[in-house]
Amino acid sequence: MNNNFADLFSITGKTALVTGGSRGIGEMIAAGFLAHGAKVYISSRKTEACDATAKRLSKEYAGECISVPADLSVMESLESLAAKISNYENKLDILVNNAGAAWGAPIDDFPEVGWDKVMDINVKSVFFLTQKILPLLRKAGKPDDPARVINIGSIDGLTAAPFDTYSYAASKAAVHHLTRFLAKKLTSEYINFNAIAPGPFPTWMLSTGIGFGGETTGVDWDAVGKLSPSGRVGSPQDIAGLAIFLCARAGAYVVGETIALDGGMVSTS
User: Fold this and answer.
1) Buried b vs exposed e over 156-174: b needs ≥16 C-beta within 10 Å?
2) Alpha-carbon torsion 201, 205, 211, 213, what sign?
3) Which of 5, 66, 98, 140 is most buried, taking the most CB atoms under 10 A from its CB?
4) Residue 168 annotated to the active site
5) Contact call for residues 153 and 176 (beta carbons, < 8 A)
6) How close are the terminal C-alpha atoms of the chain, in Å?
7) In what order do the strands lie in the sheet with 147-152?
8) Which domains does the chain have, with CATH numbers?
9) pLDDT tens-digit readout, 201-224
10) Residue range 219-241: mean pLDDT, rounded
């Protein structure tokens, strides 16, 4: 038995791709990875926002954050992203499938476009980007240090939310099960799959859902946090900490799990 516990939570020297990394939870994870010595590629649909975030994070954390914009709702763009990463790197240690979309409307008026758009980005892109990146993940994975894939789900995929976001909730439940299915098929190839199901975090997406139109400043996040038994919304340290754990040696034996990161909202309901 190996009793060496040095570097148990280290991801120094690893290379990661974080989709939806220009803001919100994706940016928080990218920042945490950079702060702990990883090289990080971030992708998002808007080129200017992606470039600006990569530049700012590189400076703030004295690391290497590279912008690779892509619209993951379009298969050609998704394939182009995978090809670019393959041109830049001969292996990829970490893939975080975080890019997502939501749509809210009363059930009687819920449009087909609101179903298809959300499913394409939240589920279809997770599967096909993983498929296209698999050669790089296979090259990175080792028995004692597998490559890692983290799929970002939601507590809305674990419990019934009060919002009229039917396709979003269904898509996140699909992400959770897809994570288990991929783990079943690929863990033996030294690629670990897990999902994180966040609760309330101070993000653009949650702001739109609670009526603040995407603004993250001026929102009473303390009031939102009271919905959680922990009495607060999540922080960058919360989401980055869990992601780092899953990608470090400490998390190497965690496989196929969906971990609620919500201050206890699901487990105590």
Assistant:
1) bbbeebeebbbbbbbbbbb
2) positive
3) 98
4) yes
5) yes
6) 40
7) 65-67, 39-43, 15-19, 94-97, 147-152, 191-198, 258-261
8) 15-261 (3.40.50.720)
9) 887 676 665 555 555 666 777 887
10) 88
Question: CA 205, CA 184: separation in Å to the nearest integer?
Answer: 31
**Any bridge partners for residue 49, and if so which?**
none
- Per-residue model confidence (pLDDT) at position 64: 98
Give how far the C-alpha of residue 157 lies from the chain's centroid of Cα atoms, to the nearest Å: 14
**pTM exceeds 0.90, yes or no:** yes
Q: Dihedral sign, CA of 24, 29, 35, 37?
A: negative
Which residue bears the tokens 């993951």?
72
- Residue 79: CB atoms within 10 Å: 15
Considering 166, 168, 190, 253, which one is annotated as catalytic? 168
What pLDDT is attached to residue 237?
97
Each residue of 246-255: b (16+ CB within 10 Å) or e? bbbbebbeeb
String of DSSP letters for 93-144: SEEEE---------GGG--HHHHHHHHIIIIIHHHHHHHHHHHHHHHH-BTT
Confidence band for 46, pLDDT divided at 50, 70 and 90: very high
Q: Is 213 left (phi over 0), alpha (psi -120 to 50) or beta?
A: left
| Cα 102 to Cα 169: distance, rounded to the nearest angstrom | 9
